[in-house]
Write a structure and sequence with these properties.
It is a single chain. The protein has 275 residues and is an alpha+beta fold. The chain folds into three domains: 75 residues, Phosphorylase Kinase, domain 1; 121 residues, Transferase(Phosphotransferase), domain 1 (Orthogonal Bundle), CATH 1.10.510; 31 residues. Helices cover 46% and strands 18% of the residues. The longest helix has 29 residues.
Length: 275
């Protein structure tokens, strides 16, 4: 499937969402070097299209164009690393967990995404965790439940749900942040992200210094996947080397490159050691 506008010629790699309201296509530029990827919204509902045009008219990083009776919104693509899959609270310290919570709040506060769309991002878990533990949103959104009535309060309280899930592994450690968010959520909730940020920041546990042995153990636990891959590559290389040596032994009666190490010692000066 191709999408052609005045500025772009896009090839669809795959369609992530497709319903009566909208479709989301992951596309690649046909003529740009390096295979530049984009997330493309195809809006099928005319009323929704008008609302999104109004909301994203001045949104940096969004390009709009129409093809036939469909409206399209184009965004830069980022790899999907869902927070729910890559956030592992059990391998983090309380400080590290709360730091990621604060990064999520900062992303919400600094992003200029309209609240009705941000609510869908939070509700549909379109929050991602980068390898450096920074947080970012992706635009793979189902607009079926879109409502222009959504305000900042709705987004803030939806975010509280995500934060509590992230802090759940630290309940036994009596994390103040979890207790405060949980109590306020059921009392009257939050009206703004700033209000939510202040509570998380103020309740943040003081930085704790761990012994070297504990820090090393945590480092190995966080990087076990990378270490496993390195070990796997090393084992494969070692296996290939052994196979080469066996084949060489069978066909030549020796291993040629080993002679580089042993042959020089057969003769010292003008005397041969084989005599």
């Amino acid at each position: 499937m191709e999408f052609v506008s005045n500025q772009h010629h896009l090839n669809s790699i795959y369609t992530a969402i497709d319903n009566s309201v909208n479709a989301v296509h992951i596309c690649e530029s046909k003529y740009k070097a390096g295979g530049t990827r984009y997330t493309l919204w195809e809006i099928k509902d005319h009323t929704l299209a008008k609302k999104l045009i109004r909301d994203f008219r001045n949104y940096e990083g969004c390009e709009m164009f129409s093809i036939g009776n469909r409206m399209y919104f184009l965004f830069p693509y980022r790899d999907f690393r869902p927070l729910k899959d890559f956030y592992n609270g059990s391998s983090l310290t309380l400080n590290e967990g709360e730091a990621i919570c604060i990064r999520l709040l900062m992303e919400c506060m600094t992003s200029k995404i309209p609240f009705p769309v941000m609510y869908l991002i939070l509700n549909q878990s379109r929050v991602n965790l980068a390898k450096d533990n920074s947080v970012y949103f992706d635009y793979c959104i189902d607009f079926t439940d879109y409502s222009e009535k959504i305000k900042e309060r709705d987004c803030a309280n939806e975010c509280v749900g995500l934060l509590l899930e992230m802090l759940d592994p630290f309940v036994e450690k009596k994390a103040n942040s979890h207790m405060i968010l949980s109590a306020k959520r059921w009392r009257n909730g939050y009206n703004t992200f700033i209000e939510l940020y202040k509570d998380v920041h103020m309740a943040e546990a003081p930085a704790k210094k761990y012994k070297l042995r504990v820090r090393i153990k945590r480092w190995f636990k966080r990087n076990q996947e990378i270490l496993f891959r390195i070990l796997l590559v090393f084992c494969i290389l070692l296996l290939v080397l052994v196979i080469i040596m066996v084949i060489s032994q069978i066909f030549t009666g020796g291993v040629p490159f080993l002679r580089l190490f042993f042959n020089p010692f057969k003769e010292i000066g003008t005397e041969t050691m084989l005599q």
